[in-house]
Amino acid sequence: MMDMKEDVIRVEDLTKVYQMGEIEVHALRGVSFTVKQGEVLAIMGPSGSGKSTLMNMIGCLDVPSDGNYYLESELVSTLDDDQLALVRNRKIGFVFQTFNLLPRATALANVELPLRYAGKNGSRKKMAQDALEAVGLGDRIYHQPNELSGGQQQRVAIARAIVTDPTIILADEPTGNLDSQSGEEIMNLLLSLNQTRGTILVIVTHDPEVAAKAQRIIYIRDGRIEREEVPA
After folding, report:
1. What would the CATH number be for the domain defined by 7-229?
2. Exposed (0-12), middle (13-18) or buried (19+): which is 208, by Cβ within 10 Å?
3. Most CB atoms within 10 A, among 105, 126, 138, 153?
4. CA-angle at 37, arms to 171 and 14, nearest 5°
């Protein structure tokens, strides 16, 4: 098992500049931090602060203009597109505010998707079913999204995120489209999965109550880390 003191995520002086016609937009301006095995980290900031750009970097969905990102000691910028796709499939689970489920597919089929991309065949259905049971939806595996509540749809999305047993779960406003009770249940589920599986949980959120459940909060503004704090 990986040493608890080892940095799984290491970000060094990350910058990101987007060219919008003749205008340069500086989304990130020298961001540095580390995340250790099993940590729960919240990233907070106003709209346009750079937090979504930062999440895309951590999720290997975008590359920095400058600086380095190491994932399990591997320099991500040295990977080609196929290698990046493999990292996203096997090491990172994504949970989005809008669930991003296939509307005409069952919960089981939605959760099987990452396993299909990974080329797993024989055990795929069993692994997907186990993931759905882990999020409390063992009795809803053949339901389609329109037959599920918002909270249940987010549970399907979480099952899809954990089915490959990733190193990191990236959750972008995971409670944003849910009522307060469902949001509380989803956060408790994510924290429970973090504790039982040792999966790193990185949450991008506007909600101070959600951020307060993390072990550490990074506040980002104008592309820079404004401060870090440990919730009381």
Report:
1. 3.40.50.300
2. exposed
3. 153
4. 65
Is the whole model's pTM more than 0.90, yes or no? yes
Where in the chain are the domains?
Answer: 7-229
**Spatial distance between the Cα atoms of 190 and 185, rounded to a whole number of angstroms:** 9
In this structure, the chain runs to a length of 232
8-state DSSP, 185: H
pLDDT digits (tens, 9 = 90+) for 65-101: 999 999 999 999 999 999 999 999 999 999 999 999 9
Q: 14: which DSSP letter?
A: E
Kindly state the DSSP code that residue 67 receives in the 8-state scheme: E
For 231, half-sphere exposure in the C-beta direction (CA atoms, 13 angstrom radius) is 17
pLDDT tens for 118-161 read 877 778 999 999 999 999 999 999 999 999 999 999 999 999 99
